[in-house]
Inverse folding.
């Protein structure tokens, strides 16, 4: 649905994970072998990945000023508590977070991406579309950081048309 450029850095992983589920059709890429492979998941990892995805969606909705039914952004605290990450300091003294284990688990990669995005001020710009039949994750590149829809051409137009019809009584 989203016609925007992908999120920067590690946020692209989070954006693509949230967008593995098409809310309007119910199609879930995690049900496919290719979808699981894209995240380094086996079939046994899918339930945890779905739980992580929906907690991330709740956080993205919160970034846009909305709430997710049945989920709260703080669910991420519990899920990411077991995600081992390690600090690495390079030759210039710059510190970065990395998953502690190899191969890196999805939750650890997400935790490192959130920490990196928080440090560079981009985490709050990863949002979820306010359209209830969409909820697609997108990166808000607007100067004021107030985008509401993943696509103005689709979700934004639908919302504006509904509001127009409501005002006109039709």
């Amino acid at each position: 649905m989203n016609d925007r450029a992908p999120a920067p850095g590690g946020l692209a992983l989070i954006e693509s994970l949230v967008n593995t589920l098409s809310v309007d059709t119910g199609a879930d890429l995690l049900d496919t072998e290719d979808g699981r492979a894209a995240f380094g998941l086996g079939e046994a990892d899918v339930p945890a990945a779905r739980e992580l995805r929906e907690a991330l969606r709740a956080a993205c909705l919160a970034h846009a000023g909305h709430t997710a039914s049945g989920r709260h952004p703080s669910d991420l605290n519990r899920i990411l508590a077991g995600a081992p990450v390690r600090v690495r300091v390079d030759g210039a003294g710059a510190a970065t977070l990395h998953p502690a284990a190899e191969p890196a688990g999805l939750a650890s990669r997400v935790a490192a991406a959130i920490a990196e995005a928080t440090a560079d001020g981009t985490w709050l710009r990863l949002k979820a579309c306010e359209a209830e039949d969409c909820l697609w994750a997108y990166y808000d590149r607007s100067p004021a950081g107030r985008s509401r829809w993943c696509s103005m051409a689709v979700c934004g137009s639908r919302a504006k048309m509904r509001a127009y019809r409501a005002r006109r009584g039709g």
